[in-house]
Design brief:
The chain is of the alpha+beta class. It is built from two helices and seven strands, in the order E-E-H-E-E-E-H-E-E. A three-stranded antiparallel β-sheet has the order 2-1-5, with helices on one face. It has a two-stranded antiparallel ribbon with strand order 3-4. It has a two-stranded antiparallel ribbon with strand order 6-7. Strand 3 (34-42) and strand 4 form a beta hairpin. The mean pLDDT is 83.
Length: 120
């Protein structure tokens, strides 16, 4: 569990929600924008509630371990996934794959920028 501090208040949520929230906040701020979102939290009495925040430019979010948490961790996986599906959530770039051998096409590895073949 993580404690998320925002505007002088601290709320408790799951690790995956806190991680997604921090990444989304940074991404929206990098675009020079702000946006209102909702995250699930656990109250001091152990009940689940919703917190509404404005994230992005000028809205600092701090996520730290919830050291005083003793209860069972709730399942907020759906909410974390919803944050990750946000249009501004940062996505990993495509991974380049090595070229495969194409013995049927002798020009497969010709690279005009190198004035020749890329493989010996």
């Amino acid at each position: 569990m993580r404690s998320v501090t925002y505007a002088g208040e601290t709320v408790t949520t799951t690790d995956d929600v806190a991680e997604a929230l921090v990444q989304l906040t940074a991404s929206i701020a990098a675009d020079g924008q702000s946006e209102a979102i909702r995250i699930p939290i656990v109250t001091a009495t152990g009940e689940t509630e919703q917190a509404e925040l404005v994230i992005g430019v000028g809205n600092d979010v701090l996520s730290a371990p919830a050291r005083d948490w003793t209860g069972e961790e709730p399942d907020f996986a759906g909410a974390a996934e919803e944050l990750r599906q946000h249009k501004r959530f940062p996505h990993a770039p495509a991974i380049a794959h090595e070229q495969t051998v194409d013995s049927d096409n002798p020009d497969a590895f010709w690279d005009p920028d190198l004035d020749g073949f890329t493989r010996a």
